[in-house]
Write a structure and sequence with these properties.
Number of strands: 21
Distance between the termini: 74 Å
Radius of gyration: 25 Å
Number of helices: 1
Helix content: 10-25%
CATH class of the largest domain: Mainly Beta
Oligomer: single chain
Largest sheet: 5 strands, antiparallel
CATH topology of the largest domain: Tachylectin-2, Chain A
């Protein structure tokens, strides 16, 4: 009996000692994990600007001033639960919210859903980066979406209010394809749409003028794929002409090549005018820069100038540039709020500055 008690006592002590060792081991592991997390936090860059809103994730901001008030038309990111891939299937956005504010730095209002994919008769999925315009006493919302055959087209919706709700036209714009519509209205009242995006944006599938699911980018030593531009009809609902290539040259007069990933077009077209010159800006995509080129016509050609925005936390970027009360501002996004998740982004804004010669000063979104 004594032997049995002694055995159980020894076993009990052994279990206690083993558990203690395991607890210490787990505690050490937790401390190591915390240390890594703390180190990672220290390594995170400190943003120059804070998100305009934090209750929802927003990206790809197209900013405009209508009647003295600022309106931002972003994508609405959410967790779609789709694995990430290079074609962007994880960006499963399904509606648009319009943000508004009286001044930069002022209170930002979320004006709720402006357009839902269920109300777009021709669309199947993925409401990506939109833009807006005002003409004919109405507001126009331009948006890309995949049709029922999973091919990106560009649609348009109208409203009497800049915040919507918008009513979509029953069909996509004739002759439209790919993504990222950006509508620029020149000082003479003529409006142009710039658009296009490679990889998931499908621009490489339209090189022959017809959709080819197996279409690819040109070889590295060939001119890169170009964004597209088309003048819009007076009613702002269709193209008034066949779309044209937006040609981008280097300062030696040579077209940018496919292999020139730091400068060639990827997506996110934007046009603004400054001192009589046309500034075409865009994202380089897989190298994560927002860059720009300058031309003398809304059609181009454009000459590459340099970087507007250095890479941000997340993946690629998408921006807009607008003048507000005599100052110029850059609207952009990053993924700091979501901890770096590339599909959960937040819209931000910062002042944009020009040099005396008209070139743009490069902006870094984080403190050095």
């Amino acid at each position: 009996m004594l032997r049995e008690r002694t055995f159980h006592y020894i076993l009990f002590v052994a279990v206690i000692l083993f558990s203690s060792c395991q607890n210490k081991k787990t505690e050490t592991q937790d401390q190591d994990t915390l240390a890594v997390a703390k180190d990672s936090t220290k390594a995170e860059p400190k943003p120059v600007s804070e998100p305009l809103v934090t209750h929802i994730f927003t990206a790809d901001p197209s900013a405009h001033v209508f009647d003295g008030k600022i309106y931002i038309y972003p994508s609405h990111d959410y967790e779609a639960g789709i694995p990430e891939n290079d074609l962007g299937d994880h960006f499963g956005m399904r509606d648009y919210h319009v943000l508004s504010m009286d001044s930069v730095g002022g209170k930002v209002k979320d004006n709720d859903i402006a357009l839902d994919i269920k109300d777009v008769l021709w669309a199947g999925r993925q409401l990506w980066a939109p833009d807006a315009a005002f003409a004919n006493g109405k507001y126009y919302l331009y948006f890309p979406a995949k049709d029922r055959n999973d091919v990106f087209k560009i649609g348009v919706a109208t409203s009497e209010s800049p915040t919507g709700p918008f009513k979509a036209e029953p069909t996509a714009i004739d002759g439209s394809f790919s993504i990222d519509p950006a509508v620029f209205t020149d000082t003479d009242g003529t409006s142009y749409m710039y658009f296009g995006g490679i990889w998931g944006g499908q621009l490489q599938r339209w090189t022959t003028g017809k959709y080819d699911e197996k279409g690819t980018e040109p070889a590295d030593d060939q001119p890169a794929l170009t964004p597209k531009v088309g003048r819009l009809t007076k009613n702002m609902l269709q193209f008034a002409e066949p779309v044209k290539d937006v040609k981008i040259f280097d300062k030696e007069g040579k077209l940018l090549l496919t292999k020139d990933h730091d400068r060639r077009f990827f997506e996110a077209s934007w046009m603004h005018k400054y001192n009589g010159k046309y500034y075409f800006s865009y994202s380089t995509g897989d190298t994560h820069y927002i860059v720009y080129a300058i031309g003398n016509s809304p059609y181009g050609p454009f000459t590459y100038q340099g970087v507007i925005l250095n890479p941000v936390v997340g993946w690629t970027n998408h921006h807009s540039i607008v003048e507000i009360k005599g100052k110029w501002y850059l609207f952009y996004h990053d993924s700091v709020l979501s901890g770096g998740k590339t599909h959960l982004r937040s819209v931000k804004v910062a002042e944009l500055k020009y040099n005396p010669d008209g070139t743009i000063q490069t902006f870094d979104a984080y403190q050095k």
